[in-house]
Design goal:
There is one protein chain. The protein is an alpha/beta fold. It has a single domain, classed as Beta Barrel (OB fold (Dihydrolipoamide Acetyltransferase, E2P)), CATH 2.40.50. The protein is built from four helices and six strands, in the order βαβββαβααβ. It has a five-stranded mixed β-barrel with strand order 2-3-4-6-5. Strand 1, helix 1 and strand 2 form a beta-alpha-beta unit. The radius of gyration is 14 Å and the shape is globular.
């Protein structure tokens, strides 16, 4: 994904919607919680931020774990009720978690998620 613009997490956190016109990569994100099997929250500016895995990532059986450090490449989109409804209809999101997703103003649809070890972490 070399065409992605690398955006520092602190810059992204100031105005996520300001990055919506380009493919971006954000490094050094920590997964705070999982939202069913196709979405998760990372910490951005001290707040949870929603990442939704693309259909390609899901079909490639990409999975992540809480506490994992990741780089995410994708596009920022405005959250709407119709987007959340389509995720539920496709089975990407449970009806029970629909309300959680609707709290997000924007989200990243991830085309790539790469896990890495945190600096100083053991590689065991």
């Amino acid at each position: 994904m070399s065409s992605a613009t690398v955006v520092p997490v602190d810059v992204f956190g100031v105005n996520p919607a300001g990055q919506s016109d380009m493919l971006i990569q954000i490094n050094e994100l920590t997964i705070q919680s999982l939202l069913d099997s196709e979405a998760f929250f990372v910490e951005v500016a001290g707040q949870p931020y929603l990442i939704k895995m693309s259909a390609d990532l899901v079909s490639d059986s990409v999975s992540v774990a809480m506490g994992e450090n990741v780089s995410v490449t994708g596009n920022v989109y405005q959250m709407t009720d119709s987007i959340v409804d389509s995720w539920v209809a496709m089975g990407s999101l449970s009806e029970a978690n629909k309300i959680v997703a609707t709290f997000s103003e924007t989200f990243i649809e991830a085309m790539d998620v790469t896990a890495y070890s945190a600096p100083g972490a053991s590689n065991q």
